[in-house]
Description:
Elements: E1 8-10, H1 16-19, E2 31-35, H2 49-58, E3 63-67, H3 69-79, H4 84-89, H5 93-107, E4 110-113, E5 117-119, E6 131-133, E7 145-148, H6 153-160, H7 172-179, H8 182-197, E8 210-213, E9 228-229, E10 233-235, H9 244-254, H10 256-314
Parallel strand pairs: 1-8, 2-3, 2-4, 6-8
Antiparallel strand pairs: 4-7, 5-10, 6-7, 9-10
Amino acid sequence: MINHPEIIYRYPPTTNEERGTSKQADQAPKIIHQIFLQEGRNSSLSKYNDALASCQTLHADWTHMLWTDANATAFMQQHYPAIAPHYAGYAQSIQRANILRYALLDHFGGVYLDLDVTCLQPLDDLRHLPWITPGAYPAGVNNAFILSRQHHPFLQKLLAEVPRRDMKWPMPYVENMLSTGCMYFTNRWMAYVRWLAASPGPVPEEEKVYILADQDGNTDTHMLRGKVTTPLFAHGGASSWHGWDAAVIVLVGKHYGYFSIMTGSGVLLLVALVWRLTRRNRVGERRSPLLRARHGRESMEKIDDEEKLLSGKEG
């Protein structure tokens, strides 16, 4: 982020220019998209009622669109037929939810919010921006909140890569992160930022992307990392899609020192074992000429005995 200060957007804004009142007209439409893909799971939308109500109250004049299994699948088939087979073939609903949010923002524009995000402030002061999202730890961007204009070029590049990134992995958490989730999102976003930086001329405002920061340029303040409250949102940190492999990764992260010692010890034992086997082989090689000579004499004596025995039989 420090290498690209031009993508930092400081919130809350303190000047009319930062608020966008002296810039071009609002780019993001007044639409909030949220996604609830149940797919037979024992889950209920009612547990998100308070979070949903908070965003509806602060954005009373906005359109609120809730996407479920039925209307989401129909939307993908109608508007993104090349991606629809991948969407239907994903093993996890979170993969579908990720791709769906990118497609919805590309098609309609507006704001995407996770269901466990409670709105604390109206988002009207951000609508003059073409694209904005929070940062992620330890690097990159988070897709729990995205504001975008319709048909932003980053979204088009992001969606174009979807078929090529549809790969199977033995760990569900890794499969989601690399195929559709935050790691895929971040990698494509960083590539887009580099592409903008390499552009020969001035970048049009409508093609830019921004990342939320405080007035000091610190992106940590707005990160939706786990259960946290930021200037704009309270994030529940539900992570309802996390499975056994995510739990293992979190466990390793919490006890990094212990696992580092265990890993280091294992490496040392492996090195010691390889050294011992190598040393044994070298000792064997030094002894091998004598052994081969002895074995050769024994073989010749055995052949002589067999010849004598055969001669005796023939006689």
